[in-house]
Amino acid sequence: MRFNNGIDRKLKKRLAFALFLIFICVLVIIGVIVKKPVDKEPGSFKIGIVSWVGFGPFYIAEEKGFFKEEGVNGEVWKIENDGALRGALASGELKGIIGSLDSIASGIASGLKAKVVLKIDESSGSDGILAVNSVKNLKDLRGKKVAFPKGVPSHFFLLTLLRKEGMNSKDIIPVYMEAGNAAVAFMAGKVDAAVTWEPWLSKANKPEYGHKIISSAEAPGIIVDLFAFSYDTLENQKEEAVAVLKAWFRAIDFLKENPKEGCEIIGRNMGIKPEEVTEMLKGLRFSDYKENLQYFKSGEFALRFDEAIEIYKQEGLIQKKFAGFNAYDVTVLSAIEKTESEH
Which of 159, 272, 279, 287 has the highest CB neighbour count under 10 A? Predict the structure, then answer.
């Protein structure tokens, strides 16, 4: 019986294989006769961001269908760590990432194969330095304990301002901690100054704690957020890159025209209340199309980039320099110049 069952199984397998070959042949013949191409679902064009309201319009572009209407399957990925963002871009998992000027600069100087294509926004009062009442200005920070997060925009903001006064990190006593913790330490009297952002900047800016000696409103152009694409994306998916930027500008317009709904979308995706989004947006300014063209074509981007590289190299946070004029690609913006001008 075992012998007969074995033969039956072999015959069944051969018959099944023969039927499979016949099925394949039929499909091939049909394909040759009809000559109809197979429709393929386009792959996702993934964009990496961290949690910041300034990047929120990308959620608007996603939810309102602006990406798809522009012809790209855009998808927003939230990755909170800069190192993880860069790694995902380098691996090809992400097509583009958003980051602060100093973060993007240090990444590119450290070997990240990417170029900046867009100025997203600029801090205009949402970042600042708090100090005890005896500290009247930046020069008075000499020898004082200053709390701030290391290697992020607050750090860069402080270093840039100190440099303008002929000072550097050696002239202060750095106390590294997160921005929120820095504000709490300042309110508790544990440090003489703190570099932080909203809502902590307003919470700690009270007479009983001290005062705000400077904010990004008085020092524009330092804390800037940028959008960068990988070399591979710029070389092989230029049309999709252009579509993403078009969707971005549409999202900015939508937020201006529909602030309530726009803030609800951003808040829902970031896990905060719409009114908090509204308040936080007051401290930043989005860069429109014309400003973007001016920013890159005037050489301002290259100048700011070089400053960031110089400061971080002096601080030992990066080892090599990288020229700003090699760190951007304005052709993506230029490709939509006519469309945006008409819009």
Answer: 159
Domain match, 311 and 264 both: yes
Strands annotated E in the chain:
45-49, 74-78, 96-100, 114-123, 127-131, 145-148, 173-176, 193-197, 211-215, 224-230, 284-286
- Pair (321, 209) in one structural domain: no
Question: Residues 235, 322: one domain?
Answer: yes
**Calpha distance 178→7 (Å, rounded):** 73
The residue with greater pLDDT, 148 or 10, is 148
Per-residue pLDDT band at 338 (split at 50, 70, 90) = low
The per-residue pLDDT for range 222-251, each reduced to its tens digit, is: 999 999 999 999 999 999 999 999 999 999
In the prediction, which pLDDT does 39 show?
A: 30
Instruction: Classify the C-alpha dihedral 232-234-240-241 as positive or negative.
Output: positive
CATH of the domain at 112: 3.40.190.10
pTM of the model: 0.82
* 12 located within any domain: no
The whole domain housing 145 covers: 127-215
Task: Yes or no: say if 56 and 270 are a contact pair by the CB < 8 Å rule.
Answer: yes
Same domain membership, residue 251 and residue 177: no
Cis amide leading into 199 (omega within 30): yes
For residue 123, what pLDDT band results from cuts at 50, 70 and 90?
very high
Q: What is the pLDDT of residue 5?
A: 41
Number of domains in the chain: 2
pLDDT tens digit sequence for 38-47: 233 446 999 9
Other C-beta atoms closer than 10 Å to the C-beta of 214 total: 18
3-class state of residue 130 by DSSP: strand
Contact indicator for 211, 183 with CB cutoff of 8 Å: no
Q: Are 142 and 171 in contact (CB under 8 A)?
A: yes
Tokens of residue 218, six digits: 């008085």
Q: At what angle do helices 82-91 and 101-109 cross, to 10 degrees?
A: 50
